[in-house]
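Quick log. Single chain, no ligands specified.
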Amino acid sequence: MNTQRITRMLPCFRRESRVKVETVGWISFALSLMTGATSTPLAKELTTAFSPLSMVFLTEFSVLCFTVLSFGFLPLLHGLLRLRRKHMLPLVVFSVANGVIAPMFMFNGLKTTSAVNAELFARSQTLFLLLFAVVFLKEVLRKEHVFAAGIVIAGVTLIALQGFALDVSLNHGDGLIILAASMYATGISVLKKYLHDVHPELSLFFRGVVALTFFFVSSPFLNHTFVQEFSSVPNTLFSVVMAYGFLSCFLSVFCFYEAVERLEAHTISVGLPLMSIGSIVMANVYLGETLTWYHITGAVLLISGTIGMQIADRVHNAKMHLPPSHYQRH
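-> predicted structure:
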């Protein structure tokens, strides 16, 4: 991807010719992990002042700004107009699933559950991706996948039952987070099956447009508009709004794509789950949320299962002489 326009604006990415490309890639990836780790804790804090629909607006507007600044509005528009008709319906399904439904579930869930739980239960997306890959993409389910999925399930179960101190039940907010994970996985599956030949920036741009359209169409039917919510936000939260928009939505995505250009796909795929560690640590330090032994153990299981699945795919692809499997971050 060509992100040179934004690259020139940030001092840490200037004069790239003087340093190794791979070094810039690692710096970008580290920044992406650190800024991305702020997403769930900051979103949790903002849900106390903003409705889920307003949070969708803040998130997608920030990502849309990044996309337009990086690639230009007219090139993106021309790219969409040149897409084939067969791409339009899958693009709409992907945009609605990942730009509207999944975030609405996620932000509604954040209102009634902790940021730690939200971050960890979101890892269940790995299970849904595996399920949809087998059912809809007709990919082969290998024993390594089953083993890794079992580890992820064990982590989810341990956290849901709070170290098996509770009966089999699920908090309403936790259930919404899992539904969000299933919708994100649905969007990624559609992207992989029907939109693999569409440039990612076009998918991001269209997703943002669909999400903002949904926001403006729905707003008149709500009791509180975004303007009313924003005007009533406590002064102490304005800095959080700015941090969420710039760090969590803009800079994390920008640094992610900078890293994608310079590092191998499997490196990023294996490293992405580490973002969850930063997120739950920040939730504990910044929000003061309790971090128990079953959170830590569950996190180890979830991240181990996710990384194990990525490594298994990497080894299999190397044996079969296939390119690294596609990954997607939201």
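Residues 4-320 form one domain.
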